[in-house]
Amino acid sequence: MIKGLYTAGAGMMLQMARQDVVANNLANVNTGGYKKDETICQAFPEMLISRLGDTKKNALGQDIILPPVPIGSLSTGAIVKDIVTDHSSGNIKYTENNTDLAISNEGYFVIRTPEGERFTRNGAFKINDVGVLVNDQGYPVIDNNNNPIELQGEFSVDKAGNILVDNQVITKLKIAVFADKRFLQKQGDSNMNPRGQTYTEPQNPGVLQGYQEISNVNAVQEMVKLISVMRAYESCQKVVQAEDETMGVAIDQVGAVN
Asked: Which backbone phi and psi does 225 adopt, to 5 degrees?
């Protein structure tokens, strides 16, 4: 009975962790460039349950202990193995905002933060009071010379990431491509920490001006997943209640003197 409580309790904690991940995905369904997370679950090793203590009489009338009789396997619960990020691209929408940029191919915009370079697919940029192109947190977008991009007046951006004023290239966006995106770590809603990974600059990132990549979260799928998580949690909760009632009966009645 105690094992049943532990197994069901582990299941409840697992579903709570899954619920947190799904809720965070839903909260960021309208966050530009946001990449949804997925929960990877892992089961504890199963235990083989056997019946012990069976005896039979031999020819001399003596009791002989029989070998254990296998009954079956018993699950011992599950835990969260890992939370991974789905780096697939979100849909790209037209915004008509000249400072909004999107990458239609592989790559990340490079942002300078107090902690160092960070990488994002969220191209909802703007020009601040001193004429520097910044993200929604006020961090500057940097060019391929590692300098903040300063802009005055009208400008355009071609698909290679070149920034043009009066049809003259003044600088180029720094865009990074990673060999293995699994090692990128989320920092905030849409920024990525490279954790020491090196990157290359693509030849044709497919930059689109006046467009923005939206979140890759499918709200309907996440809602269905949330309902499934809540039902699984309720099932584990009922198991805990049943185990508690069984233990109560065992404690109150076993060994009672009539």
From this structure: -65, -40
